[in-house]
Structures are given as C-alpha cells and as structure tokens.
Amino acid sequence: QVQLVESGGGFVQAGGSLRLSCAASGRTFSSYVMGWFRQAPGKEREFVATISVSGRNIYYQDSVKGRFTISRDNAKNTLYLQMNSLKPEDTAVYSCAADWRGSYWPPLDDEYEYWGQGTQVTVSS
Q: Are 21 and 6 within 8 A, CB to CB?
C-alpha cells in the first residue's frame, strides 16, 4: 500500500552530520505515523525516532536526543532524519517505517506495517 525508499546514508567522520531522507509513494503519506529505526551488524533492530501525522508530536530514543531531528514534509511525501554530532556507535543500517493504524503513541515497534530497504550510515573515529 505504500513504498518507502531511504537515501542519504554514507561515510562520515565522528562529529559530522548527515541527513537521511525517506521518499514515500502509494497510499497518502500524510495518513501515516512515521518512524526511523537502525540495526548494527550482529545487533537487534532498535527504535530511533517517530513523528505523528501532523508533525506536532515527536519522540526520540534517549541516546539520540539532542543530536538527531526527525521531520516530515507531507507535501513532498518525504520523511527526514537530520543527524548531528555523529558517533561511531551510530553506525548502522537506517530504515524508515510507516504505521497506518496509529493505535498507540508512541507506536509500538511491531505496529509499523511498511518498511524501506535501509541506507547504510558509517561513522569513523
């Protein structure tokens, strides 16, 4: 019902910045709560941030609070993650996800129905 494609990943030095984008197509983007997740090699996927349909409500994982900013542009059907002060431990594949039903706030991790393919972020020391 919705397709998600991430971009903007790459290699960056510790302390640097990257901006990830997630382009959505299919069912109206503005109907979805959106989230960012990440998964490092050998580790479980972890929640990063989520944003409500309107963008008025935002929730971050503690480890990225103050460094990362999630935002959305519903007119462009695009979700963003601005990442500043990057650390080596931020290295992971970052994926965006969509929650259509929006039953909980913040959404439960397993509530997200649609996922992008992910984009690699590598932070060197």
A: yes
Q: How far apart are CA 23 and CA 17, in angstroms?
A: 20
**12 near 64, Cβ under 8 Å?**
no
Name the one residue in this structure whose structure tokens are 């959505």.
Answer: 24
pLDDT tens for 66-125 read: 999 999 999 999 999 999 999 999 999 999 999 988 889 999 999 999 999 999 999 999
The Cα 121–Cα 125 span in angstroms is 13
- Torsion angles phi and psi, residue 62, rounded to 5: -55, -35
pLDDT for 49-65, tens place per residue? 999 999 999 999 999 99
Could you give the 3-state DSSP secondary structure of residue 114? Answer: strand
C-alpha closest to that of 121 among 3, 13, 5, 34: 13
Which residue in 2, 39, 37, 7 sits closest to 22, CA to CA? 7
